[in-house]
């Protein structure tokens, strides 16, 4: 029996969502699913819910759980990572301290001060996991869901772990664009590449016909620049509830696209992360409250969502997930495992080293999957998956303006990874200072003070920097 280990299995919804995905494939139902977390109470809750799913569906799945990481990883074929080091307690400081300096992150888990510090916390744990994997399951494939995706995967690539980073922004955005065009999603094809949360749709076709000109026309008309028109429509504040998972293409809060459309108006192409989150990675949209409100009329705040999982709407979602029929979500993890196990090929979008396939040595590869991004970075591209594993598909050059925006983010990612692996605090100051939004708002002395405050607030999760 194949062993699938979930690290961070105490999460409120996501580990259960991933398990339902796995069990929706008949060929994977005879797996051993090993649940691991550092919180015994949360782990017991997840096991109880998954045991119920297995029993209700009369499945042969063996579900095990434990607090010993080495036992969890021993002999694993697949290691799914879905943790948040420090939980919402640490996350609070990632967003609240920068906000005191006028730097407002509505998510703060990918770039900027929040993303850098989440990366520092995560990489310290990944170093321990990597040592155990080299010892106990050296051939295992890691399916990595934890943010900051590019920073975490970049570090894991350097540790020699065979890892693919997984997100749902390509799937979600492509479905939203098909919805905006009024065409069936199954009739759409596209080419997409870049970095996580900032990959670019360089082609978008309907039945083989280029519909990018129509896409630009539709989006420019629906989302005029709020600074170039007398007035723009505002959404009712409570029209849609906030959701952290399963965004629908017609969701007019999550997919309210003034920011991404404005970027496309200047740079020509649409990228993969929502206007809320994507506005954090560039210097143009979050300079002050009036500008933020002009581009983002209803706030989508992931910290607030993370603190609200006990609310009734989330309880109902979880109940339906556990008691309903087994169905596959848009997440790629189970599809990858199924393709590796059965040989039935699938194409997914994964975060992989720009030098080649997951697990390969950068010293022995001169290739560039995206040829005008740095050789050592982590890129998000289409990958073929079958019995041979995850095989990235060469992309070639991005449009130069898109690569230029990506390289601004890559600068921050590289410095953050170096800071984490060397324990060099000066590199943390530099990583945060190179963040485009931080640099647009704060002076270097302000940045140093802010970083010092974050170190002090988060010192219990960053002992390596004491």
What does this structure look like?
By secondary structure, the protein is an alpha/beta fold. 44% of the residues lie in helices and 15% in strands. It contains 18 helices and 13 strands. The strands form three sheets. Strands 3-2-1-4-5-6 form a six-stranded parallel β-sheet, sandwiched between helices. Helix 15 runs antiparallel to helix 16 (425-434). The radius of gyration is 21 Å and the shape is globular.
Write the layout of secondary structure elements.
Elements: E1 3-7, H1 14-23, E2 32-36, H2 40-56, E3 62-66, H3 69-73, E4 78-81, H4 87-100, H5 112-136, E5 141-144, H6 149-158, E6 163-165, H7 169-181, E7 188-195, E8 198-206, E9 209-210, H8 212-222, H9 258-267, E10 270-271, H10 275-278, H11 289-295, H12 302-306, H13 312-323, H14 333-342, E11 346-353, E12 378-386, E13 389-392, H15 400-422, H16 425-434, H17 436-441, H18 444-457
Parallel strand pairs: 1-2, 1-4, 2-3, 4-5, 5-6
Antiparallel strand pairs: 7-8, 8-9, 8-10, 11-12, 12-13
Helix pairs in contact: 1-2, 1-14, 4-5, 4-18, 5-6, 5-15, 6-15, 15-16, 16-18
Pick out its properties.
globular, single chain, 44% helix, 466 residues, six-stranded parallel β-sheet, four-stranded antiparallel β-sheet, alpha/beta
